[in-house]
Amino acid sequence: MSVDDTGSGADGDGRVDPEPAPDAADSGEDPLALRLEGLILGAERRYTPFQAARSAGVSMELASRFWRAMGFADIGQAKALTEADVLALRRLAGLVEAGLLSEAMAVQVARSTGQTTARLAEWQIDSFLEGLTEPPEPGMTRTEVTYPIVELLLPELQEFLVYVWRRQLAASAGRVVQAADDEEMVDRRLAVGFADLVGFTRLTRRMEEEELGELVEAFETTAADLVAARGGRLIKTLGDEVLYAADDAGTAAEIALLLVETMANDETMPELRVGIAFGTVTTRMGDVFGSTVNLASRLTSIAPRDAVLVDSALAEELIRTQDAPASEAVAAEEAAAAEKAGEDPPSYRFALQPMWQRPVRGLGVVEPWLLTRRGDENGRNDRP
């Protein structure tokens, strides 16, 4: 049966009697694509958007908001939705009806989940499945290989996705409950760092697309590994730039120097510059916003090649936590006093050198500090 905008086709309780899914020949779609869709979704097409919304007990307007937030294209009234789509609508609407989420928050949940998983799915298809589905024998087509490969991988990838999500959710929840007060759960004091490849625009003109893609992937992978290993959080990657955050200044500083050192030791990588700022940051949907983030970005743009610039707030925090001396003169005085008393001198990880003050549009006059390792006079570290 067909359903028009007046709601005909629904029974007395508002539920819709779904029709069988069309054959591939009728829809004009690739048969393998339809088979893969059925395998991955675990259900056949049974509903138009209107029917799915009615079956879930959700208004068409709200259903459309949820679907668009999840990143799904408008399909008119094509019969392309499944029982899983109905269940997802019912769950989101149920959270709103129960008062656990506001409608706006439910839309944010849909948007954050959709954006994150869309990128993951694209990566898996482009990089992972594409390689695995190369025909293993002459004469075989990729079509003949794809379905059984997906059939084998799907349950394993699904379980792994849920596992990683639970681990990340546990870590994030732990950070939130340790916040000093309710306001700090949203507006928190964090160290925010940008790392930017120097001369990337010029590289795009000289390198082949495949080479450029490999360079970007290597940069993002290296940065992600270093940030995670040192206890930071990778917020996002932008091709030639990564944005990360850390709960304390020392962690952010260590990550920045490791990034510069690692890239400097890789002859295939361009030079890197990093900027870090410390202060109040607003977090939304896994991203960070505010003047602290803007300042970190500005510091990156003026940082010397293969160097790290930090703002005065981060410098003060490193001094307060005794990760860096207030100055080399202070460090020398402390060393002399410790030697006189027969004690070990303070051990600092980092050194800070004040740079020129300069006006930054929208942020006033800032005083950058050059961050290096303690005792590394050239601002570089050649350790392996």
TrEMBL record:
<dbReference type="GO" id="GO:0006171">
    <property type="term" value="P:cAMP biosynthetic process"/>
</dbReference>
<dbReference type="InterPro" id="IPR029787">
    <property type="entry name" value="Nucleotide_cyclase"/>
</dbReference>
<feature type="region of interest" description="Disordered">
    <location>
        <begin position="1"/>
        <end position="29"/>
    </location>
</feature>
<dbReference type="Pfam" id="PF00211">
    <property type="entry name" value="Guanylate_cyc"/>
</dbReference>
<comment type="similarity">
    <text>Belongs to the adenylyl cyclase class-3 family.</text>
</comment>
<dbReference type="GO" id="GO:0004016">
    <property type="term" value="F:adenylate cyclase activity"/>
</dbReference>
<feature type="domain" description="Guanylate cyclase">
    <location>
        <begin position="191"/>
        <end position="300"/>
    </location>
</feature>
<protein>
    <submittedName>
        <fullName>Adenylate/guanylate cyclase domain-containing protein</fullName>
    </submittedName>
</protein>
<dbReference type="GO" id="GO:0035556">
    <property type="term" value="P:intracellular signal transduction"/>
</dbReference>
<dbReference type="InterPro" id="IPR050697">
    <property type="entry name" value="Adenylyl/Guanylyl_Cyclase_3/4"/>
</dbReference>
<dbReference type="InterPro" id="IPR001054">
    <property type="entry name" value="A/G_cyclase"/>
</dbReference>
